[in-house]
User: What shape does this take?
Amino acid sequence: MELTCLHNKFNFPPLPHLSLPFSKNPNPRIFPRKRNNFCLASVSDTLVAGSRKELSSKKDDEFGDLKYWMHKNGFPPCKVVLKERPSHDEKLRPIHYVAASEDLQAGDVAFSVPNSLVVTLERVLGNETVAELLTTNKLSELACLALYLMYEKKQGKKSFWYPYIRELDRQRGRGQLAVESPLLWSEDELAYLTGSPTKAEVLERAEGIKREYNELDTVWFMAGSLFQQYPYDIPTEAFPFEIFKQAFVAVQSCVVHLQKVPLARRFALVPLGPPLLAYRSNCKAMLSAVGGAVELVVDRPYKAGEPIVVWCGPQPNSKLLINYGFVDDDNSYDRLIVEAALNTEDPQYQDKRLVVQRNGKLSIQVFHVYAGKEKEAVSDMLPYLRLGYVSDPSEMQSVLSSQGPVCPLSDPNLNPRRRVATQLVRLEKKILHACLLATIDLIDQLPDHTVSPCPATYAPLLK
Assistant: This one.
């Protein structure tokens, strides 16, 4: 269908036209000369305010009250209230969270948000086909939703979504620990993750956001209905990258993945949803599309005033930190990825490659180490690693001709001398391993801020 026919397919009341100061061009598809000053992309116009001075008047607070706005626009009576906890930074306003307004039992409906108050691509773009088209190539749902809310914020209190956007600004993409995603951390702060593969994930995700930013104008060209209120604001001219990244991270922290809905409704922004709801990995409750609403049925009893938690999905802590700014000590889905590769310069590389292929592995093999299942992971990795260390051709031949697991950890056919020598080495390793455990125990008793002396330029040599 003609994309230009989609201009007037909004499902919510039309928003008033916003007069923009820098173009008189009557043709919304003939572009003015590129502007270098991002005057409308100032701090006050972004989805997540960059200023750390978050003082506001009581009148503004009342105007932007989230629950009042929701009830005024069709939100039925619920069993939750908004409460606040202090921020980690005293310069920032306290963070809000959803708590039970009364005692709840498992199976109770805490709240039900009508679809008229839920932001999805189908609602934003006015057509499911266009929504799917935009998100099957170079642009994610998060980028489209972030861009929409950024434009909406430009309308200030004239925007239907003003109270919700105001709440997102207050939260600043902060998770349960009241910290932002490391995507917004400084370079010095990212050094806190040194030694963790999560640091590389953060940098890779940031590059992905940059690529999406470079494709934003595609949305402007293809979905006129999204921009009829501000036809001259080409995205990459209206918003610098850092502003878009802040908005992207804010949307990322609160987007809900709905199940059993069309693709264009899969990612939704739900008022009273995350980050106002606390995520937990050992919880079964989740926001669900039911009829013409998104509702939350609690999975456990709550006392009045207790924060309500929902399931965050099977995500490792690295993803929880990047997406939502928190980690969960009881996360049974936590895992690390270890990549091992045979050395291509090894003269026996081809023979070893045949061995690993015969045993269902690859020359570059990824091992998943799940929390609580470390022993299984080690048992899977050690034969592979041991094969990589084999250098004696006679041992290589025995490995190649063996049946069953690669390089079994124990061999009943060893000659007596080798067996006793192996036994000695194992016992010595057992003593060293006990020393390692004792050292780890001592380290665990140190204060968290203790500076480790390792590595050192002239460290003692151990033999």
Observations:
- Confidence is low (pLDDT under 50) at residues 1-46, 49-64, 403-409.
- The radius of gyration is 28 Å.
